[in-house]
């Protein structure tokens, strides 16, 4: 995997965040430069390109591009073949456009995965955080995303113990968590960042309360993540192999990531079988835990993938058939 930064800085001013104070406002990289870098990564054999930015979904605003990220995704998918992955990191909910949803749904190389830090779910907390307080709108957007992009894996992060967070506000966060059922959710205990407006807010929450809320939210999310993971039992998933080893009984075992798993953040897919690191295989999922999935490598799918690779350069039609054939196995 390789990270490709598409912009730097952020135009927003969340009360807890110091990034804009040292990065400044968002500056988008020129689209031609991004496409050039993507082309080099493809030629170097990189299987997964992770487009990253503090505020990815605002891409191109400073370049006066209309629906900049959607346009960039369409262009990048002309450069990245359909048997590689493009992953998007750090979407801001209010700037996810129908065009972006359409691009994720249309292009097979774009992982059906969105990391969308929401930080909280109670309007009053969000207002103190200086973030859009309209939780209903966020909920509607999530429903829309799930309709437009079936099986999309949604990751988010929340802050617990933000200054002034009352029991009611915290309860609203838990309720939102329960209703929206994110595939992945991370929680941070609020910590005072010097120089940020939130650091001097009244009503700082004690460490003991922050810890209790964090423990509880984590436990609730574990159950939700398990329910979401169990939906994959009995189905097949394309997996990018990261390493291999042996199971307790000495049988060969691979570990890799599906489209649902960003590197070093999410879980792994473990499967009986062997395949070299850096290749794509299909795994039939047999067991789920909150973070990881376990299964068996589907041998036919592996050969479909290698057939697909060997045909990609010269005969795109055949390559497409191979992709379709491997999907039929799932
Ligand atoms: S939290 Fe994210 S969106 Fe908010 S100011 Fe920081 S970088 Fe920008």
UniProtKB/TrEMBL annotation:
Coiled coil: none annotated. Residues 230-299 form the TRAM domain. InterPro entries: Elp3/MiaA/NifB-like_rSAM, Methylthiotransferase, Methylthiotransferase_CS, MoaA_NifB_PqqE_Fe-S-bd_CS, NA-bd_OB-fold, Ribosomal_uS12_MeSTrfase_RimO, rSAM, rSAM_horseshoe. Signal peptide: none annotated. Residues 1-227 form the Radical SAM core domain. Its cofactor is [4Fe-4S] cluster. Its EC number is 2.8.4.4. It is an enzyme of class 2 (transferase). GO terms for cellular component: cytosol; ribosome. The keyword Lyase does not apply. Keywords: 4Fe-4S, Cytoplasm, Iron, Iron-sulfur, Metal-binding, Ribonucleoprotein, Ribosomal protein, S-adenosyl-L-methionine, Transferase. GO terms for biological process: molybdopterin cofactor biosynthetic process; tRNA methylthiolation. GO terms for molecular function: 4 iron, 4 sulfur cluster binding; aspartic acid methylthiotransferase activity; metal ion binding; protein methylthiotransferase activity. This is Ribosomal protein S12p Asp88 (E. coli) methylthiotransferase. The lineage of its organism: Bacteria, Bacillati, Chloroflexota, Chloroflexia, environmental samples.
